[in-house]
Design goal:
Length: 179
């Protein structure tokens, strides 16, 4: 084993290196968030080394946002003006917001998540329109920077679902939505 400089350390935010690690030059390396490295060894095995977040940050490996993971937050109870909703969840992972909306039935177009319902850090960087799909049609869901959602082009009584990701703001959340 020799010490090599890895200039193309791959992670969720692109190149995070350079880093000096003890590896054979043929061994691939991948970034494993938060604050760790997964070494893919030539024999097919893996070894993960976790670093304290402060150590990783001081080495220039990641920013606080790139290590952040809120885990899944159930926001089903935060929705309003709907006939029914199977589940709605949001998760912030690094600089991405991941949403799951299942079996949402609306009485028609309108606000389904009131302005300011999602706290700062869980709002997209820009207003975004995404498709929510039903068995035979789709509607448009606007996720806005103010922390709310509006559904358009929906048919009353029809069921819609979606799974989508959006860019998160740079600031980390100070509060978590839902449960």
């Amino acid at each position: 084993m020799t010490w090599v400089d890895i200039a193309n350390l791959r992670g969720p935010q692109g190149v995070q290196g350079p880093v000096n690690v003890g590896l054979r030059q043929t061994d691939p390396i991948e970034f494993a968030a938060p604050g760790g490295f997964t070494f893919n060894l030539a024999d097919g095995g893996q070894q993960t080394v976790n670093l304290p977040l402060a150590t990783a940050q001081s080495a220039g490996l990641q920013s606080p946002a790139s290590a952040y993971d809120s885990e899944w937050r159930d926001i089903t109870e935060l929705f309003s003006n709907i006939s029914s909703l199977g589940r709605a969840e949001v998760r912030r992972v690094a600089d991405r917001l991941v949403y799951v909306i299942e079996s949402m039935v609306v009485p028609g177009d309108g606000i389904v998540l009131a302005w300011s319902t999602l706290p700062s850090g869980f709002r997209p960087r820009n207003n975004r329109d995404v498709a929510v799909r039903g068995p035979s049609e789709e509607a448009q869901l606007t996720v806005n920077t103010g922390g709310g959602m509006v559904v358009n082009r929906a048919t009353a009584g029809k069921q819609y679902s979606a799974f989508f990701t959006l860019d998160a703001p740079e600031q980390l959340p100070t509060a978590l939505p839902g449960t």
